[in-house]
Every structure is written in structure tokens, then in C-alpha cells.
Design brief:
The structure is a homodimer.
Chain A (H helix, E strand, L loop, with lengths): L4 E5 L4 H14 L6 E5 L3 H17 L5 E5 L2 H5 L4 E4 L5 H14 L23 H17 L4 E4 L4 H11 L4 E4 L6 H8 L7 E8 L2 E9 L2 E2 L1 H5 L18 H10 L2 E3 L14 H8 L9 H27 L8 H10 L4 H7 L13 H10 L3 E8 L12 E9 L2 E4 L8 H24 L2 H9 L7 H12 L5 H6 L4
Parallel strand pairs in A: 1-2, 1-4, 2-3, 4-5, 5-6
Antiparallel strand pairs in A: 7-8, 8-9, 8-10, 11-12, 12-13
Helix pairs in contact in A: 1-2, 1-14, 2-11, 5-6, 6-15, 11-13, 12-13, 15-16
């Protein structure tokens, strides 16, 4: 059985790292694999190292771990490099958002064309895109046969950029937005094993093109799920929101996962509008309240991890990664339900996480065929989309690589021409701006923003952003200083 | 030698009709052809009939003419049906514009995505699009082998709509925007015979992809034409405006003809901005002053035609279609220079007009090969553009039909993905809205307009437009009443 070397960049996101480690152990075919945990945050790195070793021990695993702050070490000799890092963290996003709001851009300038707000950078985080390229280049140099697994956002811009700038590197992007399909199936009381489904599009812009249950087309059942009594349970809960059905009517297919958030400025113009389409009280995750909920939840997760890490250090012989024990422990420390419910999942020994990373490794390195939703260059899979644009599509993965499924029925023309094209144009502006060092293209994104009212507004906003201390590299790249 | 039957719809535009008739006579290969002049305006129709017969006589032509207000008559048994009609005329456009301005849309709601103002309807003139389809359907019924030559705007939306709704009809769209290339060549003192050039894109969105002089690439000479001392001689004079060079820098190719007007809202936001990019004093033709200039000029042309028609009626034996005589006559009646200079061109006996309609007939009906710039469905000519979208490209036309040239070098990715895609998305909204009777798509055009600030603004603007007396048909089509 193969043993792998897996580098995790941005491993300080402990829940994510533990999921990958857990999946590797549960897969049972990669014993004695080596995991290189890399992060620039020393404290977080220490915590994740402590937790990873204990988790491995308690799970009867045989993994080896290395903590490092050095990128080369995470890459050299690796079979897989998983990048999950968010350069600058959410703090940088909030800085940029507040600059945007100051200059008249409600909820900030970042957007996915059809969203206007989120942590999905398209153009304001030069350091993030630059780091993507740096990692890919280092892989080409230090570990040219490795697969780069892109988990960090923006997956659409990022994987497209990497495949264009470092074409020789094996790269695939993963997201879990397509689990929206499971949610729909659950709402219909369906058994996933009897469901024949496909989604296709771009990352955070995917659409349910096939929904066949027990051999019969079941799309009408999806349409019937619309309900006036619908209420969100949390700000992310929007798969069955009025917005999803509005988009279904407009584009002829059901939007899946984060796609629902990316509905366009028309549906995000102010809080009342957001509430109408994404439900009370938050109006979706892209409102002030929704985003605060998310930030608090994230903070809760980080704090929980620290609590658990401290516990582990103080109790070197006591088990903690057991669902009841872990949840009791977290509850006793006042961790709110939405947080502990999420954290305890890593202790579920009997099932793999929903992440696709380890299944991908199982397919490629052990030949255990998997059906995955991957982000790879289009190369003819989606009609009327250029070959060098990265699409999110179902594929069979095996030892020989990634084999995209035929998309059938195809996406509607409405999805492709009214929805995907504008999203693609924004990506092209960001990616080509970066590649050709043309800041003019970055500006153009804002000049085309429906909230822009004057040249000064654009120039002043961008001036303030590029002069942030974080953006020395950006200025140099675009020769702006 | 073949004699043709040509129907001209909207023949009341006398200059245009006389150009076609003149070209047919000058071509010298279609004697005894029959021209059916069709217009809904009785007065204009009478004038154009008088002028056409006299013009034919003075030119030694042998044409026969029929005036009619009946569409069927212009179509039945015709070899070519030329549609140049603007349903509702400019009056309707101005009505719609003033509604737009009242609701906060500077210079009106109509646009070509990258223009925001012009007589190029994309969605507010249902009657125009509907007439296109009606004509095509009548051709299919009454004269299925005829060619429909689409001269009326919007050529892009129109020809795309026709080819999708009435696929069996032979249709081609013509524009003269590509003469911008001649203007560039003239500025460089070049001999057109030594110039190897191509343009490609969509109608009013074409780009100079090839410019080879005497066997050598001469694109750098185009770039060098930029001058700080440039001044427009009239509002349409923008081929060498600062805007053209700004677009060249941004998209990597020179925009040709009306494309320069369609630069995007950023360059049309207010009069000062327009002046900066399109020159003083008008700020281009899409400003209030520029458009007034055009309307006045148009009015002058119409008045001149009436003057000449009256003269002809009163002087049945005197020649008038001779350049000096005609210009003296017009000058003596106080017709301004910009107008009479334009009108007298029809009297130039030695050269054909710049219109492509008759050369097209010469190629198809007499096998005299021509190189023309045509609007036809893409079908693989432009990379990354869907097959069923109509493109404007150079083609060789002969007895066997239209043979597109290979576009080499191809359009830049910047032109295709940053410029043509947004334009195409707008077309799709308009055309699919019409075809699927989804007014929601028409609304979406306005919801995506950068000037839209609220739902009410969109709804109130459109409500007022659809309630115009001209729009009974629109309401019925979209089931809005």
C-alpha cells in the first residue's frame, strides 16, 4: 500500500487539516503517510501539530507529522500539495471592505460579479493570487510530479491563473458547494444512491443540469420545493431560498451552493432586498449581520481548537476525539451549538468528511475510482466556453487522471450566455490584469461596477487599497510606485 | 444578363433608395430590373418614385418602378428584399429617450452595452424587431428563394433574431462601419489596393485584426496616428479620436467605425467625459448636441429630397442629377454644406456608392466575385463565440453564396472576452426575451444597467414605455395587458 507525502499549506485552519488527516486514516490505504503542516502563524501551527498527533494516535493511525513555516518544505518530495491558505486573513478583507464602503460601495468592492460581497477575492487580494502562482512554480521546481490541490478561494480565478501561468503543474480545484444537491435530495426524502445528478458551471456558479431519480426525470420535484413558509436556519442556508427559485425561473436551471449567493447586484442592493430574497433576519451571509454571524462562528471554531489543544497538552493520556466527550467538553466551555456541532464532526470515526481531497488521492494513487466534482480547464466539456477557462464539472478520477463526464443535458443557453459570461469576463479582467501586469484591467472591474458613479470614486478607492501596507508587492508587480 | 426584382422596404429614405438604384444602373449587368419601392409614408413614397424615375431616365437606365404601401408586394417574386425601415422613426426613439432621462437615465435607456445612446435599438423598439421577423416570415412564404438584405438597425440583434426564428430564409446584414479602415488608410496616405486588411466582431463592435501594407505589417503606423491636436470635423468623426486609441490600448486592437462610440458607460457618463474622449464641441454623436446635429442633418436631407422632387415635378424636361447642377440648386435653396455635399453624391455617375447591397447582388446573381463585410451566423469563424450568434466578418461572395475568410490573426482574447461577451449577453437578453416572450429578460437589461439605482426606477421606466400608444403590440406579445 502506498504511503504518501502530503503538504498542507495554511494548515493552521485546524478543522480542515484534521479532516484531511482523518480521511487519510479512515481510507485505510495510506498508512505511514507523512503530513507536512505548513502555516505562517506559529501559534496555530503548534496547536494543529498537537491535535494532529493526538488525533492520529487515538484513531490508531500511523501518520508522521512535520510542522513548518517554510513553504519549500511543504512542497519538496510531496505527492500532494493542498493549498488552503488565505493570505492576509479575513482582517485584510475587512480592511478592503471598509475602504469600499467609505467610497460608496455597499458591502465593499469585492464580488463575484453576481454577488458583490463575500470572502471570495477576485481582484483586491494580489497577495493571494501571487501566492497561488508562487506555490505552483515551486511545485514545478521542487516536486514536478506532485498534484496541487487548490482549496483556497478564489478557486475560479486561482485555478485558471495557475493553469495559464504554470501549465506543466498538475492542478485541480475543489469546493463543496455541490453538496447543495444532497440538501435538495434530503428535502425530497430521496436516497442519494438512486439519484443520478450532475452540476456544471464555474466554481460558485454551478447549476443542476441533471436530476434523475430511480430512472425518472425528477426536476419538477425540485421546482415544487418552493415554499412561502421557508425560513433560513443560518445565514448560509439559502439552497431553498426564494432567490434559488427566482434564478431557476430566470435561467432555466437550479443554482447550487454558493451560486445562490451570486445572484447579482439587483438582489443585493440593500438590506431589505437581501432579506426579501435570502430570508430574515440576516438577508443571507453577504449582509452585515450575516457576515458577522459567520465571523463569530469562525472565531468560535478557532477558540474551540485552542481549547482542545490546551486540553490535550494538559492531559497527555486522555482521549478527547470521541463525539460525546468532545461535545460535552466544548459545551462545558460555553461554545455555542452551531460551533461545537461543526467541530465534533472531526471525531466521527465511522465516516469520511465531505471533503474531496483524500478521495482524489485514493483515486490517483491507489486506483480506487471516484466520482468527484472538479475544477479543471474546460477543453471542450462545456459548449461555448473557451478551452482555457476553468470549469467545475463532474468527473471520474482514477490512476490515469481526471476524466470529465459528458454534461447531459447541457447547461441552458440562459445559464451560459446570461450568467456565466459576465462572471467569466470579470475573471478575465482579474487574471489578465495579473498576468499582463495591467492595472488598467483591475480598474476596469470597478469601472464596470454598477455602483460606480465617477472616475474619482474608482481612482480614490483603488489608491487607498494599493497604499495599504499589505500591498507593497502589488505596487511593485504593477509598477505603480 | 439577369434582370432582378428588388424590393426596398422603407424606401422613403430617398437617398438610400437612389443609391441602390444608381448602383444597379452603374453595375450595368441588371438592365430592366424592377424595383418595388415600399414605405408606409405616402408623401415620401411619392417623392422617391418621382426621383427614382427621373434618376433612371437621366442615367440612361432601363429600370421599372412600383410604389406600394403593401409589404407583400415588395416581397412577392423578389430576388432581393432590402429592409431599411425604422419603425416609428426617430420620433419614437426620442420619446423613449425622454422617458429614460426623466427616470434618471442620462441620454436614455437604449444602448449597445458599450454605448448607452444611439438610434441602435436593442430592446425598447419591439415593433422594429417584430417587423424584422414579419418580413422574414413573409419571404419564407411568398418568395422563399429571395435574399433578405438587412440594412436596418439593430443589425446584430436583428440578423441573429431572424436566423434563429426563420432559419430557412437567406439573410445577410450590411453596415458601412468598416469604411473606418479606409479613413485610417487615407490618413496614412496609403493606396487601398496595396492594403491587406480584415475587421471582425459584431456589428458596431468590429476590430481591425489585420493591417498589412505592401506585404509588411503596418499596425504600428495606426498606433502612431494618435495626435493631441486632433479635432473632430463633425460629431461622427471619431475614428481617430482619443477614444479609439484608448480602446486600442485596452483591447489590443483598433476599434473601427461605430465601435468607437460603443466604448462603455465609463466614457459616456456626462458631457465633460464625452468631450474629453470624443472631442469638442459635441463630445461625439451620442451627446445632446451631437445628436441634434445629426437630427438637423437628417432633416436637411429629407428637405433637400423634397426640394428636388418638387423641382422634378415642375421641370419635367430638365436634368437635375448632375453634380454641379444639383449642388448649385441645393445651395441656392440655403441647404447647408454638410447636407448638400452628402446629397449630391447620388449624382456621381462614375462611381458606385459605398453601399454593399448591389455588389452582393452582382456576386450572387451574376457570379462577379466580391469581397464584402457581411453579418452572418458565426458557425466557427470567430473562436470562442457561439455558432448561432451573428458576426460581422469579411467574406468572398459568389454564385454559390457567402464564404467567410479565415480571420487571421484572430481577435485578441481581450476583444472577445472583455468586449464582445458583454455585448453578446445584452443581445441574448433582448433576442431571447423576444423569442420566449419573457419580458423578465427585457427588464434584466435595465436591472444590469449601471445607472439603475432601484427596482422602482426600472419598473416605472418600463411601465411608461410599454404604455406608449406605439406599444400595444409589445404588451400583447409579452402578455402584459
Amino acid at each position: 500500500m502506498p504511503s504518501l507525502r502530503v503538504g498542507i499549506i495554511g494548515a493552521g485552519s485546524a478543522v480542515f487539516s484534521l479532516r484531511i488527516i482523518g480521511d487519510l486514516i479512515k481510507a485505510g490505504i495510506f498508512p505511514e503517510s507523512g503530513i507536512v503542516l505548513m502555516d505562517v502563524d506559529r501559534k496555530r501551527l503548534e496547536n494543529v501539530g498537537v491535535l494532529a498527533r493526538r488525533f492520529n494516535e487515538e484513531s490508531g493511525g500511523n501518520m508522521r507529522f512535520i510542522e513548518t513555516q517554510n513553504l519549500d518544505e511543504a512542497i519538496r518530495d510531496s505527492d500532494y500539495v493542498v493549498n488552503t491558505a488565505l493570505v492576509g486573513g479575513h482582517e485584510y478583507l475587512e480592511k478592503v471592505r471598509s475602504i469600499g464602503e467609505k467610497h460608496g460601495y455597499y458591502r465593499g468592492v469585492e464580488a463575484q460579479e453576481f454577488n458583490m460581497v463575500s470572502d471570495y477575492y477576485t481582484f483586491t487580494n494580489f497577495n493571494q493570487l501571487n501566492y497561488f502562482v508562487k506555490i505552483a512554480q515551486k511545485i514545478a521546481e521542487l516536486s514536478p510530479k506532485a498534484w496541487l490541490i487548490q482549496a483556497a478561494n478564489p478557486v475560479f480565478e486561482g485555478v485558471t491563473l495557475i493553469t495559464r501561468m504554470v501549465p506543466d503543474v498538475n492542478v485541480v480545484g475543489f469546493c463543496h458547494g455541490h453538496y447543495g444537491v444532497h440538501e435538495i435530495a434530503r428535502s425530497l426524502g430521496m436516497d442519494m444512491n438512486k439519484l443520478d445528478w450532475q452540476v456544471a458551471g464555474f466554481n460558485h456558479a454551478i447549476w443542476l443540469n441533471r436530476f434523475v431519480y430511480d430512472g425518472k426525470d425528477a426536476y419538477h420535484l425540485v421546482e415544487n420545493l418552493e415554499s412561502k413558509d421557508w425560513k433560513p436556519t443560518n445565514p448560509f442556508d439559502d439552497q431553498l431560498s426564494p432567490m434559488a427559485f427566482e434564478m431557476l425561473r430566470k435561467y432555466g436551471m437550479m443554482p447550487i451552493g454558493d451560486t445562490v449567493r451570486n445572484s447579482s447586484w439587483r438582489y443585493h442592493r440593500n438590506l431589505d432586498t437581501k432579506k426579501k430574497w435570502y430570508g430574515e433576519p440576516w438577508g443571507g451571509v453577504d449582509s452585515k449581520a450575516g457576515w458577522e454571524w459567520y465571523r463569530k462562528w469562525l472565531e468560535g471554531v478557532v477558540n474551540s481548537i485552542e481549547l482542545v489543544a490546551d486540553y490535550v497538552k494538559q492531559h497527555p493520556r486522555e482521549e478527547i476525539f470521541e463525539v460525546n466527550k468532545l461535545s460535552e467538553f466544548l459545551k462545558s466551555h460555553g461554545v455555542p451549538e452551531s460551533v461545537w456541532k461543526s467541530v465534533v464532526r472531526i471525531a466521527e470515526r465511522d465516516k469520511m468528511s465531505a471533503e474531496q481531497h483524500v478521495p482524489f488521492m485514493m483515486a490517483v494513487s491507489a486506483g480506487i475510482k471516484q466520482r468527484l466534482i472538479v475544477n479543471i480547464p474546460n477543453r471542450g466539456v462545456l459548449k461555448d466556453i473557451p478551452d482555457d477557462v476553468v470549469v467545475e464539472i463532474p468527473a471520474i478520477v482514477d490512476k490515469n487522471g481526471i476524466h470529465p463526464e459528458e454534461i447531459s443535458p447541457p447547461l441552458t443557453d440562459e445559464v451560459v450566455r446570461m450568467y456565466l459570461y459576465p462572471r467569466m469576463t470579470r475573471m478575465e479582467l482579474a487574471v489578465r490584469g495579473f498576468m499582463e501586469r495591467k492595472f488598467e484591467y483591475i480598474k476596469e472591474i470597478l469601472y464596470r461596477d454598477p455602483r460606480t458613479k465617477s472616475d474619482d470614486q474608482v481612482e480614490n478607492t483603488l489608491q487607498e487599497i494599493i497604499n495599504l501596507p499589505e500591498n507593497v508587492g502589488l505596487k511593485k508587480h504593477y509598477l505603480l510606485s
